[in-house]
Amino acid sequence: MTEADPSPQRFRDLMLDAEPGFEQVMVCVFDIQRHETRTYRTLLDQPDSTVEELAAELERDRSNVNRSLSTLREKGLAERGRRLLDGGGHVYQYTATPLPEAKELMHDTLDEWTAYVHSRIDEFGEETV
């Protein structure tokens, strides 16, 4: 299975919820934490945010926000750009993957996981030589 596979407990929780919300589906499909979904949603509303701006908006420590952004980038849910500063140097700015693309990524990730489960089901009862 791939790194983005839903954890068994999260998948069970999702199945038991009659109407799971966006964040609950993201947590399950991408195997991320709720605070990472909050970071993603904040980035949707405030593109090109810096870590400092996000930390203030989310009321979280900068190091925690950095970890959330790393996870989101690994999962394909955020991008990092660099902006040059007038006085020299640069600052990183983060933008969320647009919602339509994120939804497609959710579908693709879930389809891959489902195909894996189907292949495992097909293997049941086969003898190993």
TrEMBL record:
Q: Where is the Transcription regulator TrmB N-terminal domain?
A: 29-83
Which species is listed as the source?
Halococcus saccharolyticus DSM 5350
The protein's name in its UniProt record:
Putative DNA binding protein
> According to the entry, what is the taxonomic lineage of the organism?
Archaea, Methanobacteriati, Methanobacteriota, Stenosarchaea group, Halobacteria
Q: Which domain of life is it from?
A: Archaea
